């Protein structure tokens, strides 16, 4: 399919990004956020953390708005540009895989090393029943991957009603997952300071929960864009890339469920 361009000797199909303040402001916001987290843990000072978070949210909204304008109204996202977006998302997912792998490796290393020194997990820590909230959350997240996929297929077939409906289901499943994760934290008998297991548990589930909230937010925006007809059988790359990310989050949770919930529970 041809792009909406009239080809000329000077035409090039790549998207030449215009000058934007958002990369710099996002860097400042993230730097303030991490500094604020340090101040919060060290001195219980929330100020910089909230300022950083506010700036990050504002920049994310404005940056996202600019990208939608480029795609829908300015037609800057040619087929060549879209291939670049796909490569970028694949690279991002690979980097995220390495991020989670570092925590899983810490877990594997702990199990192998402490096997001959002391029991793992630490005796006396109340473990979660893997057949309770964890299993329910696994079912919710796997189901949400199917609803997201069906929503995408519906948009590709110009079935807006089913696309919107199943994207709504996906958003609700993501919200319910996060709520159950909150209940699990609230009922936990151990904290991040209770042994190596407690630290790894809350780091892994916490960062995964953050990724679920990011994915849910993306799908909320996608749902709104579906309602105002931003997608059709040709223009749906944004949905596809979001679903790639969601499937990645789903696979991380399945591994996390097996290694943090099921396996330690069987060792008790």
From TrEMBL:
Membrane-topology descriptor: Multi-pass membrane protein
GO molecular-function terms, A-Z: cytochrome-c oxidase activity
Domain Heme-copper oxidase subunit III family profile: 10-265
Subcellular location: Membrane
Xref: Pfam families: COX3
SUPFAM superfamilies for the chain: Cytochrome c oxidase subunit III-like
Transmembrane segments: 20-41, 48-65, 85-108, 161-180, 200-224, 244-263
GO CC annotation, single: mitochondrion
UniProt xrefs under InterPro entries: Cyt_c/ubiquinol_Oxase_su3 (IPR024791), Cyt_c_oxase_su3_dom (IPR033945), Cyt_c_oxidase-like_su3 (IPR000298), Cyt_c_oxidase_su3-like_sf (IPR035973), Cyt_c_oxidase_su3_a-hlx (IPR013833)
One GO term (biological process): mitochondrial electron transport, cytochrome c to oxygen
Keyword vocabulary terms for this entry: Membrane, Mitochondrion, Translocase, Transmembrane, Transmembrane helix
Protein origin, superkingdom: Eukaryota
CDD domains in alphabetical order: Cyt_c_Oxidase_III (cd01665)
UniProt similarity note: Belongs to the cytochrome c oxidase subunit 3 family.
Function recorded in the entry: Component of the cytochrome c oxidase, the last enzyme in the mitochondrial electron transport chain which drives oxidative phosphorylation. The respiratory chain contains 3 multisubunit complexes succinate dehydrogenase (complex II, CII), ubiquinol-cytochrome c oxidoreductase (cytochrome b-c1 complex, complex III, CIII) and cytochrome c oxidase (complex IV, CIV), that cooperate to transfer electrons derived from NADH and succinate to molecular oxygen, creating an electrochemical gradient over the inner membrane that drives transmembrane transport and the ATP synthase.
Name of the protein in its database record: Cytochrome c oxidase subunit 3
Organism in which the protein naturally occurs: Dolichoris vasculosae
